[in-house]
Specification:
single chain, 3-stranded mixed β-sheet, 498 residues, 12% strand, 8-stranded mixed β-sheet, 15 helices, alpha/beta
Length: 498
């Protein structure tokens, strides 16, 4: 049976019915991972530990454990620290680092019975939109291996899209869950900032980073988010809110009454998201999805987010500033790679960091250090924070006339590998539609809505107000019940005989 085409819900049903064991399932996916190594999705495997976890899951299943995630395989982005797998954050400076503890997200999913298959590729320290800055090498899109998967959670998106894992964890600082989800044709959600603990997640930009699930469907993401989200005392930015059931609205109509599933839903369409710069192939797919919303009873209303164009300069001041602070701990002293040759302590710092960090990380550290330096703090960083507040207010103004906001995730489909390496500014512009929700701390998600040229996937972005994850997932699930875009298989996923 082609287990890699099944959703979490479907696999769980089969595990409960004893149609397959967790150990058999783990073996099945490990074989697929081995057979598709040319995608460069996984950066560390520990088959013995995977099988130990699968055996424990089988024992729980035999004892009547009904958890939906019990025995389900998962891949973790290499930014989450793990006790049994190396954690490098895609960087040379963390080569062979093994954490003494698991990140909160890893521990929560493990506690629910998920079986870790391994760690997956990512842009170095989550800095990038193409997964080309990883020290482990370029990860490749399973729809066309000469194209990027998007970043920084590129390996996570590949793992799901290629049928190497039913689900994966990702992180989103400026679109790093939504963009690779869109470019690889899967579903992913970035929750409200603070909904998921950042404990054990190697920091890039602390006020922007947020973890979330990546899977085939909105339902699968909701099932994972039920476990991932919740207060964690070890994270000072974790919201002290009660656990929520994100599956509670799935399959219900928007009004709760019989009729069209989205009747009464107001979908805001920002004019700034459909202007110049949006490719015709992406526009066509997104507009077709909007038309489907209308057929399902939704009302589409025009809204405006006037400071959208400022999100790029604001983000690329704030994020590098926070990164320059967060990455100062990687100095070759406490952990991480130390330079082999140096003259004194200062020389050791310099050599360890210059040898350990890649070009994109160095670029952002330098930008961040500059904007925080004396004489420039007020001119750049403080001004960016003020505009950030205005961007957040733009969304609140828009939500007065709509329930959710819809638009593209990225201006184009996945580009060719190497296309934007020589011009980082072009890569930064790819984030134009995804940065604002992070700056505002809002929940946002991507789900498949069609294909562009060369049969490359296109995703539609849904943005909600604070704490509206259940509503976003409800809309996405309703759309996926009416369409089949999320069921499309990449060429690597179609290799069922692996």
């Amino acid at each position: 049976m082609s287990w890699h085409t099944k959703t979490i819900k479907e696999i769980s049903t089969s595990l409960q019915a004893k149609e397959i064991s967790s150990q058999e399932l783990a073996t099945y996916f490990l074989q697929r991972i081995s057979a598709t190594a040319d995608l460069n999705a996984f950066v560390d495997l520990n088959e013995e530990q995977t099988m130990r976890e699968a055996k424990l899951a089988d024992e729980q299943l035999a004892n009547g454990n009904k958890s939906l995630l019990m025995g389900i395989p998962v891949a973790h982005k290499d930014v989450f620290v793990t006790k049994h797998w190396k954690t490098t954050a895609g960087s040379k400076i963390l080569t062979n680092y093994l954490s003494p503890f698991d990140a909160h997200v890893v521990a929560e999913l493990s506690g629910a019975g998920m079986v870790c298959l391994g760690k997956v590729n990512m842009d170095e320290f989550a800095m990038g939109s193409t997964n080309e800055s990883s020290y482990a090498g370029v990860a490749k899109n399973p729809w066309a291996i000469d194209r990027v998967p998007g970043g920084s959670s590129g390996g996570s998106a590949i793992a799901v899209a290629a049928g190497l894992s039913p689900a994966a964890t990702g992180t989103d600082t400026g679109g790093s869950i939504r963009q690779p989800a869109s470019l690889c044709g899967i579903t992913g959600i970035k929750p409200t900032y603070g909904k998921v603990s950042r404990f054990g997640m190697i920091a890039y930009a602390s006020s922007l980073d947020q973890a979330g699930p990546m899977a085939k469907t909105a339902e699968d993401c909701a099932i994972m988010l039920n476990v991932m989200a919740g207060h964690d005392a070890k994270d000072s930015t974790s919201l002290n809110k009660a656990k929520e059931d994100y599956t509670k609205n799935l399959g219900k109509t928007w009004t709760g009454e019989a009729g069209l599933p989205l009747k009464g839903l107001r979908v805001g369409l920002p004019k700034e998201y459909f202007g110049d710069g949006l490719s015709s192939e992406v526009r066509q797919a997104v507009e077709a999805a909007v038309d489907q919303f209308k057929k399902m009873g939704a009302e589409c209303v025009p809204v405006t987010l006037p400071k959208t164009e400022l999100s790029i300069p604001v983000y690329y001041v704030i994020a590098p500033a926070e990164a320059s602070s967060n990455l100062s701990r990687f100095d070759g002293v406490r952990y991480g790679r130390r330079a082999d040759k140096y003259d004194d302590l200062l020389d050791m710092y310099k050599r360890s960091r210059s040898e350990g960090f890649g070009a994109e990380v160095k670029r952002r550290i330098m930008i961040g250090t500059y904007v925080l330096s004396h004489g420039y703090y007020d001119a750049y960083y403080l001004k960016a924070q003020r505009i950030r507040r205005i961007i957040a207010q733009d969304f609140q103004n828009a939500f007065e006339s709509c329930d959710i906001i819809a638009g593209p995730v990225a201006p184009t489909v996945a580009g060719k590998i190497g296309e934007k390496v020589s011009d980082p500014t072009q890569m930064y512009l790819e984030d134009i539609y995804t940065l604002s929700p992070n700056l505002a701390g809002l929940p946002a998600m991507s789900m498949p809505c069609g294909f562009g040229d060369n049969q490359m996937p296109v995703g539609i972005q849904l943005i909600g107000n604070y704490f509206s994850e259940a509503q976003l997932l409800q809309v996405a699930h309703a759309y996926q019940l009416e369409t089949d875009w999320h069921k499309a298989q990449s060429p690597f996923s179609k290799k069922g005989g692996l």
